[in-house]
């Protein structure tokens, strides 16, 4: 006990206590200045009827539904590609990781210009290949969220690629050899050797990716600030606005509890699916 | 395991106790009456580019040698968050500067500000109403910028358009922008409108007299239709381009990319200093009253209506004894004519404007000298951008979404207004 105490103290003070306090705060009308009153489940009832919160939840799911599969596919493909013994693989692995270590503000600025509807290079390219009315991207309520998902996938792919690469090293070589001798095609080898061998990695990545998608915040704040209108307002931003702009910390805490519950629920579901497959 | 749980419970209890009792003011030894000067703290931000706090502090200490003022610097963008945290922890400054009016009700509700209704502000000072909550006054203004229309005289000459004469209504504004567009050289727009929601809504709220807290936003329809039209006709940079390229208003007007610009009077000091340093081009400029809804408030024989929020000082509710006295004296000093003159001398628009203050302000080298600029600076009915209420922040959030939806072209003004009114009923109502 005593040798983990210093570590535990830090965890307790900086993580555990705030988390426990959060649950308490979600049941009060606290507005920072210590005049909080116990309001029971009122905050949660208000959330149920708050249409902005509904929008935020829908947008969060919409974003996750695009971002999770897209990132999984892109990062796994990258990992497979860069798992070969081609020349310059080390360079490309590093290059793929660059977006992940780039400052988020810089990313937002550059992508903002790239997505510019009239003068941006993306739409210039689209017009060049014959798209007459390219989308308005970040300036359109329909296209802003897909644009955010694209940037976000571009940013995250390198990180998850590294995790997949690590996973690929654990798939036994003999299985590939055996499959090849049995005459399995490349697709069959991928389907029946690589994917099952990667399952623990895929499980881990899916969980992390889901939680990260649900709590997306920084990128949206600097890229669109939730706009145009409310088209990219997500749960984290709702929490931020209610808490820090409108000083309704009790209400913001209740929304945080809902976000926490959502993350927990999704993790459990993924966990159960994985367990059933293992059985 | 049991011990762990006990330890966690103890920690949790301790932290709750800490947050619950963090209300007292930090008591410093200097508050005693032991003969030495009493030191009070005043909150401020960006001290290197916002010299007013130190100037006021120094002038106050010079006038009252018994008091010393220490300016406590906060980060400008996170000012209210950081200040809130300090106040909640009982470590707040004795004089709390009110950077944005919309946060005042939260501070009042949280019992952080002392009632200063007994302090008398000088006659003719603007912005005092913004600091009233339930009939009591919680702060005194010292600075009050209001919105005017800046214009580039050189570009007007090039386009062969006569300078504004102070009589413009919004229709005249559009007509003149069209004339400008026809005559301006390539690369210069007739107008620049920054992407803030206040550029449209602040003026619309003030001039129509609408109360946004009632949840009726129909008065925004006409201003938005006009603004979207200006964009479509190429009279000003499109909102989306402005956002994508992160244009700054200082560069757009300072580098002569626009012949006119609606902006707050704080920009006067910025433009003077940027022209002096070479950051902005050298050109002749002036400013006029903002365009009016109709001719009843337009023209130099009337009082034009514009908007602007005051910046003011409040006294920490936990300050007592000598500190409270000192803080109250500081508030009165900062709103006095003496302070107003000093502020005008460094290019700041004080809340109190009279002839002496006008002369000081326009004597600054680089300031415009024409009569219309003086008229625009000194004569106006300035209404607050937003009413002071604990609902303001939420309504502003809704109207902010309305602004981006309309200006980006994603929604028509009608649809966006309907949606905002629905949200008001649902979320604020």
UniProtKB/TrEMBL annotation, chain A:
Membrane topology summary: Multi-pass membrane protein
Chief location: membrane
Record keywords, A-Z: Cell membrane, Membrane, Sugar transport, Transmembrane, Transmembrane helix, Transport
Entry keyword annotation includes tRNA-binding: no
Sequence intervals crossing the membrane: 7-27, 61-82, 94-115, 135-154, 201-223, 249-273
InterPro entries to which the protein is assigned, alphabetical: ABC_transporter_permease (IPR051393), MetI-like (IPR000515), MetI-like_sf (IPR035906)
PROSITE patterns: ABC_TM1
Compartments in which it is found: Cell membrane
Ranges for domain ABC transmembrane type-1: 57-270
Record's GO cellular component terms: plasma membrane
GO biological process: transmembrane transport
Similarity remark: Belongs to the binding-protein-dependent transport system permease family.
Protein name: Multiple sugar transport system permease protein
Biological source species: Nocardioides terrae
TrEMBL record, chain B:
GO (cellular component) term, any one: cell envelope
Keyword Signal assigned: yes
Organism per entry: Nocardioides terrae
Transmembrane segments: none
Keywords: Signal, Sugar transport, Transport
PANTHER family: ARABINOSE-BINDING PROTEIN-RELATED, SN-GLYCEROL-3-PHOSPHATE-BINDING PERIPLASMIC PROTEIN UGPB
SUPFAM superfamilies: Periplasmic binding protein-like II
Annotated region described as Disordered, given as residue ranges: 408-429
InterPro entries referenced in this protein's UniProt entry, alphabetically: Bact_solute-bd_prot1, SBP
Family, similarity comment: Belongs to the bacterial solute-binding protein 1 family.
Domain of life: Bacteria
CDD domains: PBP2_TMBP_like
N-terminal signal peptide: 1-20
Compartments where located: Cell envelope
Protein name: Multiple sugar transport system substrate-binding protein
Pfam families: SBP_bac_1
């Amino acid at each position: 006990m005593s040798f983990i105490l210093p570590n535990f103290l830090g965890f307790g003070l900086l993580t555990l206590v705030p988390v426990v306090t959060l649950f308490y705060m979600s049941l009060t009308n606290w507005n920072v200045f210590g005049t909080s009153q116990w309001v029971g489940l009122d905050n949660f009832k208000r959330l149920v009827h708050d249409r902005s919160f509904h929008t935020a939840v829908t947008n969060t799911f919409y974003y996750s539904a695009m971002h999770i599969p897209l990132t999984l596919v892109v990062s796994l493909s990258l990992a497979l590609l860069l798992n070969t013994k081609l020349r310059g693989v080390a360079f490309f692995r590093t290059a793929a990781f660059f977006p992940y270590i780039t400052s988020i503000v810089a990313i937002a600025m550059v992508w903002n210009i790239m997505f510019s509807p009239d003068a941006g290079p993306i739409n210039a390219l689209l017009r060049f290949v014959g798209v007459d009315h390219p989308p308005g991207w970040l300036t359109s309520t329909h296209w802003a969220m897909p644009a955010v998902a694209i940037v976000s996938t571009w940013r995250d792919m390198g990180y998850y690629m590294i995790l997949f690469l690590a996973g690929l090293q654990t798939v036994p070589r003999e299985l590939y050899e055996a499959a090849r001798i049995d005459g399995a095609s490349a697709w069959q080898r991928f389907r029946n050797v690589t994917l099952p061998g990667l399952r623990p990695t895929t499980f881990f990545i899916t969980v992390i990716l889901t939680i990260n998608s649900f709590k997306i915040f920084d990128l949206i704040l600097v890229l669109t600030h939730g706009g145009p209108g409310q088209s990219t307002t997500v749960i984290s931003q709702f929490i931020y606005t209610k808490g820090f702009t409108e000083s309704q910390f009790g209400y913001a805490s209740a929304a945080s509890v809902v976000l926490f519950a959502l993350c927990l629920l999704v993790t459990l579901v993924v966990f159960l699916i994985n367990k059933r497959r293992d059985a | 395991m049991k011990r762990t749980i006990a330890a966690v419970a103890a920690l949790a209890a301790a932290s709750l106790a800490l947050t619950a009792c963090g209300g007292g003011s930090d008591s410093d030894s200097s508050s005693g009456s032991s003969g030495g000067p009493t030191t009070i703290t005043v909150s401020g931000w960006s001290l290197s580019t916002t010299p007013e706090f130190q100037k006021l502090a120094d002038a106050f200490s010079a006038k009252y040698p018994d008091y010393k003022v220490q300016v406590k610097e906060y980060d400008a963008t996170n000012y209210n968050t950081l200040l809130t945290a300090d106040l909640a922890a009982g470590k707040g400054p004795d004089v709390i500067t009110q950077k944005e009016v919309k946060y005042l009700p939260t501070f009042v509700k949280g019992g952080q500000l002392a009632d200063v209704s007994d302090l008398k502000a000088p006659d003719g000072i603007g912005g005092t109403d913004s600091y009233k909550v339930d009939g009591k006054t919680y702060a005194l203004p010292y600075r009050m910028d209001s919105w005017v229309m800046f214009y580039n005289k050189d570009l007007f000459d090039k386009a062969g358009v006569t300078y504004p004469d102070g009589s413009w209504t919004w229709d005249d504004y559009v007509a003149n922008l069209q004339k400008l567009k026809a005559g301006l050289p390539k690369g210069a727009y007739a107008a620049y409108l920054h992407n803030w929601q206040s550029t449209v809504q602040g003026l619309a709220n003030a001039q129509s007299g609408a109360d946004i807290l009632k949840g009726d936003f129909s008065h925004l329809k006409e201003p938005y239709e006009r603004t979207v039209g200006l964009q479509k006709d190429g009279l000003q940079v499109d909102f989306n381009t402005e956002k994508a390229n992160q244009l700054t208003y200082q560069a757009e007007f300072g580098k002569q990319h626009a012949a006119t610009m609606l902006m707050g009077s704080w920009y006067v000091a910025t433009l003077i200093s940027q022209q002096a340093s070479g950051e902005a081009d050298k050109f002749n400029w002036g400013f006029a009253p903002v365009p009016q809804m109709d001719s009843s408030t337009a023209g130099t024989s009337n009082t034009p209506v514009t908007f602007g929020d005051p910046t003011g000082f409040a006294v920490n509710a936990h300050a007592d004894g000598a500190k409270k006295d000192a803080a109250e004296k500081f508030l009165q000093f900062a709103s006095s004519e003496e302070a107003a003159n000093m502020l005008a001398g460094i290019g700041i628009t004080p809340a109190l404007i009279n002839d002496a203050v006008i002369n000081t302000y326009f004597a600054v080298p680089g300031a415009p000298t024409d009569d219309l600029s003086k008229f625009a600076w000194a004569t106006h009915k300035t209404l607050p951008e937003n009413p002071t209420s604990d609902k303001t922040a939420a309504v502003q959030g809704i109207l902010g979404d309305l602004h981006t939806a309309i200006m980006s072209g994603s929604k028509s003004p009608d649809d966006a207004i309907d949606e905002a009114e629905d949200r008001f009923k649902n979320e604020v109502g």
